[in-house]
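Quick one, T. Sequence first:
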Amino acid sequence: MRYHFKLLKLYVLLFLLSNILASCNIVTVDNNPECIGKLYNYEKKLVKGGDFWITTYQKITDRTKPFVFYIEGDGSPFRGKYRISRNPTPTRQVLLKLATMDDRPNIVYVSRPCHYTPKELNPKCKYHQYWTQWRLSDESVAALNQVINKVNNNQRFSLIGYSGGGGIALLIAARNDMVKDIITIAGNLDHVTFTSHHEVTPMVGSLNPIDYALVIKHIPQLHISGGKDKRIPPFIADQYVTASNSRCVKHKMFPKVEHNYGWNKVWPYVLTLPVTCY
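Structure tokens:
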């Protein structure tokens, strides 16, 4: 009887795997968040934050333990330097794939307003400003903060933000006293310096994370950047650390990493680093 039960379990697993493989080939697994979610047992859930339905991918195995929230970057706000994209949804799943490498019990990937979710559910996404000038707006930060508070289990939690999501993480920490620690990955920690450096349109209507550096300087923070990152160069993190003037705020640079490439190679090591004030 035991043998037949084990055999049945094997058939069920093979059936589930075949269904996944049937819809997710090698190419789509690499780029499709739903395929990544299936393979790593993440559940897709839409969570309301403010006026937005936010797409999340959640792997929750022990609700008594602290949560870790991975906040997505800006995605694809522009095509080229000046042409505004019609859909800002990320085309590369850098952050979600990093989240799957984190073996802590409760991992939640949080996308940004107007990413993934059909526009029919988010009428405000007819305004491209939500992924251009307003991508770090008070409204967007408040929406994501509300999503996190809804999903969280009332314990102190960790924030990990990639690119523009790094800036969002800092802005959430400035208004949420449940934040335990923060890691930013190639984070846009000062959008004024960022837009000036690239000679692009200023992000009028957005909050600037560096303006809150002193407000959250007591929170342990690790800001990591890539030495080959031409989009958000390491000097932006250096400036933020200087503005914080706190032993809780540290910067580590990985010489061979680019903005979108190479983080998967260093991420297991980053996860072993202590994020403390010591």
